[in-house]
Amino acid sequence: MMPYLSGSGALLLVTLLGIPALTNAAENIDMSKVRALAALPVKEIFRDSPVRELPRASYWKTIRESPIPVVVMFYSNVDPESQRLATLVRYISIKYKDKISTYRVIVAANGKPTKVIAADYEKSYSLDKTPGILFYDNDSGKMVLEDEQYIAANFKEFRTPSLLFWKVYCDAACSYIDKNILD
Are 161 and 31 in contact (CB under 8 A)? Predict the structure, then answer.
C-alpha cells in the first residue's frame, strides 16, 4: 500500500501537535498575488514557472529517466480546485527547481473529467481524482506519495485562500518534501 497523507491530515498534524513547519517557504509570499493567480486558468498559473507540460506519450520514459525526484500534477485547466492547487505547485516548484522536476498533465479543459476519461487516468496512473499530484523518487520511478486530495474543495480556507492556511499548507508541503522526497 502506498503511503498516504492528506493535506487536511498534514494540517491537522501540524496544528494539533504544535509542530512548527521546518521551512519558512511561504513567509515572503504575497497572498494578493496568490489570489490573483488562483483566478487564472492553470496553464496561465504555470506560465514562466519550472512546471512543464508532460505529454502522455512520454510520461513513463520521462519519469524513469529522471535523475532527480519528479512531481506530476494532473489538472483541469479551468477548475477552482485545480487552480488553487496549481498556485501551491507553482511556488513549490520554484523553490525546488534544481532538486525536483515538476510536470503537469492536463486531464480536462474545463471542470471535472468525464467518467470515461477519469477511468482511463485511474487505470494508467492510479489517479483517483482530478486535480491530483503524484511524487516519484529519483532511483526507480517508484511512486512514493499519491495524494489527489491535497487541497480538498470542502475546506473553506481553500475556497477563499486565507493567508494563514495557504502558507501553512505551503510550509507543510515543503517540510514533507525535505523529509521524505529529498532524503
Answer: yes
